[in-house]
Every structure is written in structure tokens, then in C-alpha cells.
Amino acid sequence: MTVKEFITQHPGGTFDMTTPSGFVYLLPEEASAMLAGNSIKGNPGMPGAEFERPIDAEWLLTQVVLSPYFKDGVWHFTTTY
Q1: Alpha-carbon distance 15 to 34, whole Å?
Q2: What is the pTM of this model?
Q3: Residue-range domain boundaries for the chain
Q4: How far apart are CA 34 and CA 38, in angstroms?
């Protein structure tokens, strides 16, 4: 299943992803914006605005979801190409 399919199947969800380019944490409104084609922010493992960088929505939405699990109201998963 792709990231796009997963997010679409879990509307209003919060997502914590480990991607090949770093970490992405999306609140529901950010996930909706990404589905609309807007780039989102990720980090290489160091949280904080000084480390954030844009990640292209199309690049992330086409990746495959691995090992999703739901804990404390957040979907956690790894992605791959």
C-alpha cells in the first residue's frame, strides 16, 4: 500500500513516518495538504526548525508503507521506494 492510499484510508489521522530521507510527522491538516499536492516538512533525525527541509508530496505519496501500527492516537510506519 502506498502512503497516499494509507492516508486516504485513515482520514483525520496523525502520522509519524520514517522515510528514506528522514522523519516526517503530520497532523491531520498537514496530511490533507500533502494529499492536495503541497510539500511538507521533514527532518534528518534532529527535530527543530533549523533542521527542517521540504519534502515533495508526490515523492512521498508514492512510497510503500511498511509495518504500520497505531499507538496513542498516532499511526507509526516506515516507508520505502
Answers
A1: 12
A2: 0.92
A3: 3-13+26-70
A4: 5
